[in-house]
Amino acid sequence: MYDDTKEEVFLIMKLSTAILADKLKSKFGLQNKKALSDELHLEQVLFYDDGDEMQPDKIYIYTQKPGAAEMLVVPERTVLFCMGKVHTRNTENDGQVFQVIDETSPFTLLNEIQRIFDYYDRWEKRLQELTRQADNIQEFLDESFRIFLNPIIVSSADYFVIGYSSVIDTREELSSLVDLDSVIQSSDEYQNGKRILNQRKKRGAYYLPEYITGARTLRVNLFENAQFIYQIMMVESLSRFKSYDGALLEYLSAYIQTALARLIDSRVEIGHRLDRILSDILSNPGRDNKSAEKWFSEFGWLATHRYFCVSLKVNSLDWANMTVRFICKHMESMLGKCGSCAFQYENNIAIFVNLTLMESGAEEVLEKMESFLKDTFLKAGVSNEFTGFEQLDAYYRQAVTALDVGCRRKPYRWIYRFDEVALDYVLERSSSELPVRLVCSDRILKLQAYDEAHHTDYYHTLKTYVESQLNAVQTAKKLFIHRSTFLYRMEKIEELVKLDLNDYDTLLYVMMTFRILEQEEQK
User: Fold this and answer.
1) Residue 248: which residues within 8 A CB-CB, separation 6 or more?
2) 146/152 Cα distance (integer angstroms)
3) Taking a C-beta distance cutoff of 8 angstroms, is the pair 98, 21 a contact?
4) Residue of 68, 62, 21 whose CA lies nearest to 45
5) Per-residue pLDDT tens digits for 193-245
6) What percent of the chain has pLDDT over 90?
7) What do you get for the CA distance between the two ends of the chain, in Å?
8) Taking all residues of the chain, what is their mean pLDDT, rounded to a whole number?
9) What angle do the packed helices 138-148 and 106-133 form, to 10 degrees?
10) 72 near 88, Cβ under 8 Å?
11) 113, 59 Cβ separation under 8 angstroms
C-alpha cells in the first residue's frame, strides 16, 4: 500500500477475518479456532456444499447435513462459517473456522456478510472516484472518517500539514492536532529521543505511544524513490483503535499517494506554461525578450496590467521533502490560478501576482498570504508594483533583496516590502567597497570619539535632533532634558565639529552616517 509508485492503480476491496469477527459479533454468537488476521484478502462469500472444492481467499457458509460425519479440511487462507457443530481439522496450515453457536439462518448470515462487503465497497469506489477527480485530499480523509471514526492528518516529512479530516475544525479539543507549534514541539521532543530516523524508514502501519505525541497514533509512511516524503497519521482521539485499522490505513494510503502524485503532476496548463516562461526569463536576464508580451497575452497577462513579485525563503528540508511543490500549489489556489504563478526558482519560491486579473491591491493579497506564512514559518520578500515585462528579472531580484535585507534587519517580521528596506540596502551597498567608517562622516566619528574620551552624550543628542527633524522642543522631550540644556549641548557640538544642518547635502550625509553606524552596532 505504501510502495514507491506514481502509477494510478485501483485496488479491489477485500476483508480480513478481524473485520468479519468485529462486525458480526454484535449479531451472532461466534467461536473461532485460530487467531484473527488483519490481512485484507477475503473477496467473496458463498454457500458450501459437500464435495465442493474450497478456494483460497473465499468465505464459505456450511450447514452439515444429517448423518454426515466426515471431517472438513479448510484450506489455508480460506474462511468457513459452520452452522451448528461441524467436525473440522485444526492444524497450523488450515484456514480459519468460525462456529456459529446460536440458532441463525445461514441466509441471514450470508446477507450480513454481504452487507459488510457492500459497506467497504462503497468506500473503495468513492476513493477511486476521488483519485480521478479531487482537487485536494480533503475529501479522501472526510470520506474515510466513517470507516475509522478518528481524525486523519497527512503531512510532509518536515511536518507541513497537507490535509486533515474536517472533524478537527468542528471539535475544539482536536485543534492542537494541526496547530503547527504543537506539532513541531511534539516532533522536537520525539527527535530528541533519537528515534525519528528509524521511524521514518518504517514500511507499513505502525503505532506511536501516547507519551510521545499526547495521544496514541497510527501511522503510515509514504516513499518516493526510497525517500520518505509524506506521512499519514490517525489519532486515537474519538474512538479506540481497532486491530485492523492499520491494514485499512495502508489501503487508504495507496489511494492518497496516487492522488498526491496526480495533484502535483496535473497542474493546470496555464500554471505549468507560465512557470516555464517566467523561469526561463529569470534564468536569462540579459536576453532580449521581445516575444514575452505575446507569450503572456495567451494567458490573459497583458503588459498594461499591474504586477508584483514575491520571493519565499525555503529551507533545505522543504526541498528535500518536496514540500515546495505543495506550497506553490497552495499559493496559487489561495491567490487564484489565473492571477498568480508560483514556482521553484534557485533556492526560493518565486510568485508573480497579476493584480489586475485579481481585481485587488497588493495589501489585500499580502493579507491573504500572511496567516499562511505564520502557520508554516515562511518569510516573504515583496517587490514594488510594476507594469510591462521588460524588467521581470529585476523585480524578482528586488523581492529577493527585500527578503535578504529584511530577514537580517527585522527577523521578527513575516513580510518584507522592498520600499521598507530600500534605504538599508542602499547603505549596505555604499559600504560594500570601503570599510564602513571610511564611508561615514568624519565629523560624526569625531563627535563619537569625543564622547568616549570625555563621557559626554553629544553623539546621541545630535542623532536624536536629526531623527526629530531638527525640532528642538521634541528633541529635549525625548532626551528628558530642559530646552536650555539641549541648546547648550548644540552649541558645544557646533564648536567641536562645525556642522551646517541647514545644508541639504550635509544633513543627508549625517543621516546616512547615523544609519550606517546603527547597522554596525546591530551586527
Assistant:
1) 40, 147, 148
2) 11
3) yes
4) 62
5) 455 667 778 899 999 888 766 789 999 999 887 888 889 999 999 999 999 99
6) 51
7) 52
8) 85
9) 160
10) yes
11) yes
Q: Are 2 and 27 within 8 A, CB to CB?
A: no
C-alpha distances in Å from residue 287, one per residue of 225, 351, 465: 37, 21, 49
Q: Which pTM was predicted?
A: 0.59
466 Cβ contact partners less than 8 Å away, ≥ 6 residues apart:
501, 507, 510, 511, 514
* Sign of the torsion angle spanned by Cα atoms 360, 363, 368, 369: positive
Read off the amino acid at residue 504: Y
CB 486 within 8 A of CB 461: yes
Look at phi and psi of residue 406 and say left if phi exceeds 0, alpha if psi is from -120 to 50, else beta. alpha
DSSP per residue, 228-287: EEEEEEEE-SSSPPPTTHHHHHHHHHHHHHHHHHHHHHT--HHHHHHHHHHHHHHH-TTS
CA 267 to chain centre: 18
> Which residue, chain included where needed, has cell 536624536?
464
β-bridge pairing 161-164 and 45-47 = unpaired
Residues 137-174: tens digit of each pLDDT:
889 999 999 999 999 999 877 667 778 899 988 888 88
Position of cell 495521544? 215
Q: In what order do the strands lie in the sheet with 152-156?
A: 161-164, 152-156, 227-235, 217-224, 206-208
Q: What is the DSSP letter of 154?
A: E
CA-CA distance, 113 to 69, in Å (whole number)?
A: 27
Torsion angle (degrees, nearest 10) of CA 494, 498, 503, 509: -100
User: Between these two residues, 319 and 137, which has the higher pLDDT value?
Assistant: 137
Q: What pLDDT shows up at residue 71? A: 82
Identity (one letter) of the amino acid at 70?
Answer: E
Q: What are phi and psi of 447, to 5 degrees?
A: -65, -40
Q: Is 1 exposed, middle or buried (0-12, 13-18, 19+ CB in 10 A)?
A: buried
Distance between CA atoms of 30 and 80, rounded to whole angstroms?
Answer: 12
Ramachandran sector of residue 326 (left: φ over 0; alpha: ψ -120 to 50; beta: rest): alpha
Q: Name the band, by pLDDT with cuts 50, 70 and 90, for residue 453.
A: very high
Question: How far is C-alpha 245 from the chain's CA centre?
Answer: 25
Residue pair 331/321 in contact by the 8 Å Cβ criterion: no
How many Cβ atoms from other residues are within 10 Å of residue 249's Cβ?
26
Q: What is the pLDDT of residue 180?
A: 52
**Distance between alpha carbon 412 and the CA centroid of its chain, in Å?**
21
pLDDT band of 266, cuts 50, 70, 90: low
With beta carbons less than 8 A apart as the criterion, state whether 95 and 77 touch.
Answer: yes
**Helix-strand-coil split of the chain, %, nearest 5:** 50, 15, 35
Radius of gyration of the chain (CA): 35
Q: What is the dihedral of CA 384, 385, 390, 391, to 10 degrees?
A: 10
341 vs 10: CA distance, rounded Å: 32
